[in-house]
Amino acid sequence: MRSTFTGLNTMVRGIFANQLSLDTVGHNITNASTEGYSRQSVNLAATMCQMQGSLYGQVAVGTGVDSTSILRARNIYADTQYRQEASTQEYNNIMQMNYQKIETTFYDTETTGIQKAMQEFYESWKSLSTKASGNAEREAVVGKGAVLCDMMHRAKDDLVNQMDALYEELGMRVDNINELTSKIVQYNKNIVTMEANGSSANDLRDQRDLVCDQLSKYIDISVSEIDGYYIVVCDGATLVNRTSKLTLEVSRGSTADTDENYVDYGVMDSAIKIKETHTAFSPKNGSIKGIFDAVDENKKMIDDLANMAALMLTTFNAQHRAGYDFNGVEGGNFFGSSGVSYSSYDYSEYRTHYSNLDADHIYVYKDDETLTGVEIIEELKVNPKIAAYGGGKYIAAKTDADLTGMDSSSTALGDNAVLLSDFFDMTKGYTELTSDAVKDLYYNYYDANGKTIDIYYDRFTTTVVNGVTYDKELVYRGDDGVVYKMTPVTSDTEETDTTDEEGDTSGVYYVDAYGTILTISSSDSEEGTEEEEGGTSVTFTGKRASTGETVTYTTDSAGFLVYSGVDGQIYKSINASGTVSYTDDKGNNLQRTTVSVETEETESDEEDEEGTTTTTSSSDIIAIYTSSTDDEEGGDSVTYTVRSNGESVRALGDVSIYAYYNYSMSQLGLRSETMNVKVEAQDALIVQIQNWKASESGVDWNEELTNMIKFQKGYGACARCLTAMDEMLDRLVNNTGQVGR
Q1: Is the CB of residue 492 less than 8 Å from the CB of residue 469?
Q2: What's the pLDDT at 687?
Q3: 198: which DSSP letter?
Q4: How far is the C-alpha of 28 from the C-alpha of 120, rounded, in Å?
């Protein structure tokens, strides 16, 4: 039989349940604006019933309600999606901000900017070309050249400062990551302790999830839960494992001494390592990844500036040296330093030992010193000799030492200034071809993939020594130095291969990069020997006549690759006695002949008496290399045809500096605009996911106010029912049995 007071207990349970629900509603309302808070609700369940006997058997009588738990509304899938997209959003934000800074650096106006400076530099040369004797015009060239150099230096400095700021920001963000992972570890401990009695630590779980959301903005993370603990993984490393964590640290330093691929960008690069394991840490997304990619973007812009500077240090200087100054003396360098040889290389195309380097990097040789990145830009300055007071007279505006041509106003003309004024638009070299000699300037050097090697002091130049005119040809380059072959061009001079004891240089002789005479000698064992795969291994010793110092020069097995085409490859080498020879890629010796073609035909094929096919075109000079042995496969001699079209080897290939700069800026604008579109799209996606999360976990005021009224009414109803039961019991206890007293 049920207890007399059972109904009271039922109502008390209802009062407690409604009161707890009302308290939870109040908790939700007060935390409606709390970041990361998830709406909570009380789970109610009917209590165990009591069995009551009746006319037809046992009946189950309810005993009220009880609160089983308080749970938060949380969608794990939405959390995962948010963390993935938040990483992408932060990455995009970092890149967008960096692009905006770069665009500010390169912003061109009508009065400032690199392109404006180039235009004014061009106009100053154009003015000089019609008035080569004018001091004002010469000083204008010097001034505008200095402005152009200054604009490029400023752009470089801005990019370097941006990278420094990014690396400083990297250090702060890594500290934040370590702080967040420490919080996750502490929350893991507190949550597991609190939930040991079966309850749910909802508020602590919300705070832990919020920390994970914040962490996902820095790096891409994967979060899993085991026994109440969060496990956080990134880049294959478990940053948080239950109650332990890994610590990230930033190291900054130069790799110039240890990495042959090192390029100087003016900053000490940063890297992230895991302190406990000393291994590298490289997230694939988030703001940390954005910082590294933003630095790379700045480096790319420095590469573009360096490539332009390299072209001015090499091609522009080469054309300036081809002219004559105010006094009829051969021109020197306009940019850089006096008496220095500048040559530019794309190291990925320099097959000797730099074949693994990035093709985007242009390197410049300043004599034997290698310049990279910002060093090239910093080297770009108007030659101090020209920039000095009165130095304008050293500008090589003429193409002839004896030039006396005048315009209508009796002003000396500057034909070389015309060529230099066209520099920013030109894609070809202007040095003339001659019918009696093939200048090596017009034979590109190639790597095994057919890419050109940009070498400027490899060109065939003419110089005068002791009153004798010589062709100066680079015949060897290696890590140990360079060797030039000096060949007299005076018609009545017989060619010899040695220098006599008195140092007479009237015949063929060899010098190093500094012009010091080399005496070529070697033992029989050092003579060129043919290897199994072809080519000649060359080792010879040069003794510097001035100091007696012995220097050994050693090439690789084949020498210089001077031609690469569908018909094979040609290598040029010099043996120990100084004799130049040519071989194909099979080691066959090749005989070189040259043909000068002055026809107006577009292109035709002619076959000589020996069956050698020669392709000709207007104003071409052709070098024909024919093997002296029969080809192993076909039985016929192998013929290689190399055509010169007058195009010089340049740091920017066949692209003019104007076109290169405009293309670089257009690509920058395209990348920036693309990133702006990505940011807008990602922001819209994040808003959608946040709305999704809010619909699941957010506090809705209308819903909470409805619940408040519901639980308030429920509480009042239970209390009213309790009062009614109390009145019944009062009647039963105090008034029952009074009749008949």
Answers
A1: no
A2: 95
A3: S
A4: 68
Total length of the chain:
741
Residues facing 462 on adjacent strands: 471
DSSP label at residue 721: H
Contact 666, 673 (CB under 8 A): no
Quick check: 63 pLDDT over 70? Answer: yes
Distances (CA, A) of 234 to 84, 186, 271, 359, 661: 12, 19, 16, 32, 39
Statement: the pTM of the whole predicted model exceeds 0.85: no
Which three-class secondary structure state does DSSP give residue 512? coil
231: tokens are: 């496990």
Cα separations (Å) of 11 from 16, 52, 107, 715?
9, 19, 77, 9
Q: Higher pLDDT residue, 312 or 609? A: 312
Task: Give ∠ CA 726-730-736 in degrees, rounded to 5.
Answer: 145
Rounded CA gap, 265 and 416, in Å?
35
**What interhelical angle do 114-130 and 657-697 show, nearest 10?**
170
Report H helices in 276-383.
Answer: 286-311, 317-321, 374-379
**464-488 per-position pLDDT tens digit:** 788 788 877 766 655 556 677 788 8
Q: Which long-range contacts (CB under 8 A, 24 or more apart) does 278-282 make?
A: 279/237, 281/234, 281/235, 281/237, 281/248, 282/235
Q: Distance between CA atoms of 70 and 318, rounded to whole angstroms? A: 82
Torsion, CA 438, CA 444, CA 448, CA 449, rounded to 10: -140
pLDDT of residue 689: 94
Q: What does the alpha-carbon distance between residue 250 and residue 214 come to, in Å, rounded to a whole number?
A: 20
pLDDT score for 53: 82
Task: Give yes or no for residue 609 having a pLDDT over 70.
Answer: no
CB–CB of 582/625 below 8 Å?
Answer: yes
Under 8 Å between Cβ of 439 and 456 = no
Whether 507 has a pLDDT exceeding 90, the answer reads: no
- pLDDT of 355 higher than 60: no
Give, in degrees to the nearest 5, the angle at Cα 67 between 63 and 71: 155
Helical segments of 312-421, H only: 317-321, 374-379, 384-387, 415-421
Q: Using CB atoms within 10 Å of the CB of residue 438, give its burial: 0 to 12 exposed, 13 to 18 middle, 19+ buried.
A: buried
User: Is residue 700's pLDDT more than 90?
Assistant: yes
For 518: left if phi > 0, alpha if psi spans -120 to 50, otherwise beta; the answer is: beta
> What pLDDT is attached to residue 213?
96
Question: Pairing relation of β-strands 604-607 and 589-597?
Answer: unpaired
Using pLDDT thresholds of 50, 70 and 90, give the confidence band for residue 505: low
Residue 329 binned pLDDT confidence (cut-offs 50, 70, 90): confident
Confirm if 294 and 166 have CB atoms less than 8 A apart. yes
How far apart CA 399 and CA 698 sit, in angstroms, is 80
